Amino acid sequence: MIGDYLIEISDYLHEINVVSTAFRIVLAMITGGILGLEREIKNRPAGLRTYMLVCMGAAMVMITNQYICETFVDFDVDPARMGAQVVSGIGFLGAGTIIVTRRNQIKGLTTAAGLWGAACLGLAIGIGFYSGAIIGAIGVLFAMMGLHKFDEKIRRGGKLIEVYIEFSSITNISSFMAFLRKNNFEVKDLLIDKGQLQDNENTALVITLKSEAKQHHTSIIQLLSQADGVQYIEEI
């Protein structure tokens, strides 16, 4: 008896009606809001409201698409056409969250990927694929929150490290290169720029180094800070 009742509710929520439409929009709000809250806590450009709007908008697109397919049954209507435009069109919003800083840092990739994921979840909710949307939301949230420390641990303990260094003078660069060779570091990439400290004579390096053995990046930073002429150093 209970099973039949649940089946009836499920069928009702998969149809296009006022209740199912409201349920899908609210579910999209909750799903997008949860994902956006994680970004909001970390003070990212796209936060709670942005994720919520993206997820709701995508859900509304699929609800409209389903409504068109059920209303105009005599016409050849593609049920995935509008959803496909969301998947490709969300790129402009994601690209707006990606920035390259003066120190050659790329920020916003996770936020952009999260927005794309929120749009896809909204599409699933909008068409009534509730189980897929909920499982997908758990997966996206786990990737954004649960794997953050694991990702940091891997990155901080690898052989490659990218650092931003400011020197008191450009003449210190040659001695710094000798310091790197002496401590068995291999230079993989190098960019020379103007420093950002108050002294206009400062020279900055954005450099990617490879060490012979894995070691924590904190110890590498401490070692590099001992080189002659280093005024400021940070990992990027």
Short description:
With 236 residues, the protein is of the alpha+beta class. Helices cover 59% and strands 16% of the residues. A hairpin with a 5-residue loop joins strand 1 and strand 2 (106-107).
Topology:
Blueprint: H1 2-14, H2 18-41, H3 48-71, H4 81-89, H5 91-96, E1 99-100, E2 106-107, H6 109-126, H7 130-146, H8 148-156, E3 160-167, H9 172-182, E4 185-194, E5 203-211, H10 217-224, E6 230-235
Antiparallel strand pairs: 1-2, 3-5, 3-6, 4-5
Explained architecture:
With 236 residues, the chain is α+β, with helices and mostly antiparallel strands. It has two domains: 2-146, no CATH class; 158-235, Alpha-Beta Plaits. It is built from ten helices and six strands. The chain has helices spanning 2-14, 18-41, 48-71, 81-89, 91-96, 109-126, 130-146, 148-156, 172-182, 217-224, and strands at residues 99-100, 106-107, 160-167, 185-194, 203-211, 230-235. It has a four-stranded antiparallel β-sheet with strand order 4-5-3-6, with helices on one face. The protein has a two-stranded antiparallel sheet with strand order 1-2. A hairpin with an 8-residue loop joins strand 4 (185-194) and strand 5 (203-211). The protein is elongated, with a radius of gyration of 25 Å. The model has no long low-confidence stretch (mean pLDDT 83).
